[in-house]
Amino acid sequence: MRSTTHVSPASRAGAGGRAVSFIAIAALAIPFTLGAQGRLPDEATIIRVARQVTPAVVSVTDPGVGLGSGVIVRADGIIITNAHVVGTASRVEVGLADGRQIAGQVLGRDPTVDVAIVRVGLTGLPTAPLGNSDQLEVGQTAIAIGNPIGLDRTVTTGIISAINRSPRGFELGGLIQTDAAINPGNSGGPLLDSQGRVIGINSAILQGTTGLGFAIPINLAQDIANQVLTTGHITRPYLGINPAELSPEIADRFNLPVREGVIVRTVDPQAPAGRAGLQPGDIITSIDGAPTRTASELLRILRARKPGDTIRIGVVRLDENGRLAGRTTVAVQLAAAPVQ
Known about the structure:
Helix content: 10-25%
CATH class of the domain at 31-47 and 128-218: Mainly Beta
Number of helices: 6
Distance between the termini: 31 Å
CATH superfamily of the domain at 31-47 and 128-218: Trypsin-like serine proteases
Mean pLDDT: 83
Order of helices and strands: EEHEEEHEEEEEEEEEHEEHEHEEHEEE
Strand order of the largest sheet: 9-10-11-14-13-12
Largest sheet: 6 strands, antiparallel, barrel
Radius of gyration: 20 Å
Number of strands: 22
CATH architecture of the domain at 31-47 and 128-218: Beta Barrel
Low-confidence stretches: 1-7, 12-38, 168-172
Strand content: 35-45%
């Protein structure tokens, strides 16, 4: 059974952002649950992180789209934000923490993963250090900084509620889910760990809910930035599936024949995975012979490949009752991800 709701960009309401559908996990009816509540950081930690990172948080304004946020990641003026914050603009207005307003050039954007790279013509700017989103744990501290409803550099705290969430429209992304308050205007701002390292770029909120926000993993955003800065364009390998995590708890609940892997929630029949024969409900257990236990591992492998590469995917296939129907290996030639 498939249920739908909506995810909205966390940019200014009514300013042209469009909602995208969120598909609850359909394969095997996996529940959409929050992670265990972790211990929140103490006051001194929050103060330290806010003081450290707030100078690197900027506002990003495109008159045709609205107000959003961004984070400076290089002292020579490189900013990461959301693609939906900059829209189709080639130039935007950037507001620095010291009060200066300066024109920013949009160097590149990939709406399919909601990442954009902006440059301002300044040097010696404060920067935020980058973390490693592939090493996130459910329950760890999350601190968000942004400009909700124009309230500059607002700090909110919470935890990582879940990882590898994949709303439609983020085909390669396993999004970070957090209960740190994210509101309209937070889009493009940093999600931080307790060390003040950027672990995600805040992107979307689930309408009509409290504590359901989503961020782009910083490793994916950094990969987009590196491509833009080194080659001037974005090329990503595209598999064409919507993945979900298979945990031992889910395997036990549904009496599955494997306890770890990546469930194929949906498949684009016109994408490489669909043309190669992957099916909804398949469980990916390996790629090129290497065990693939989590969606994060799948995404790491894909980031290391190029369009045109062929990967061999080990698959456990289930029948309509969730019982083992067979094991197979599917050869998939990756394509270039569509960039709008």
